[in-house]
Structures are given as C-alpha cells and as structure tokens.
Structure to design on (66 residues):
C-alpha cells in the first residue's frame, strides 16, 4: 500500500499532530500542578464566597467559519 501526498500536506499533518501532543502535555502538566483541597477548605470557600452558579451565560459570543 502506498499513499501519495505532497510535501505541504505532510508538513501540515505533522504540524497538527505535534501541536495536539504539546497541548495535551501542557494540559496534563497544568492539572498536575493544581493542589487538592480538603473538605474543610471547600467549606470555608463556600462560606466566604457562596455556592457556585450552575450555569453562566456568555457576555459576548461570536462564531467564525474557518
């Protein structure tokens, strides 16, 4: 089986794959850097700031076609 594609297409595919891999790694590192909170801390935050709002409406939204 042989697949033919030009150099630009191959470069675009590789670039996209590398970009996705880096983004996944960044997200993974970010999530690892967040410290866990204890139940007591969560209760203190809830008392101080109140319960979080279930759903917020966006203040501004725009759709773009790429």
């Amino acid at each position: 089986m042989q697949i033919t594609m030009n150099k630009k297409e191959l470069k675009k595919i590789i670039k996209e794959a590398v970009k996705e891999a880096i983004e996944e790694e960044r997200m993974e590192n970010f999530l690892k850097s967040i410290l866990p909170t204890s139940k007591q801390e969560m209760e203190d935050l809830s008392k101080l700031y109140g319960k979080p709002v279930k759903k917020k409406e966006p203040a501004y939204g725009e759709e773009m076609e790429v």
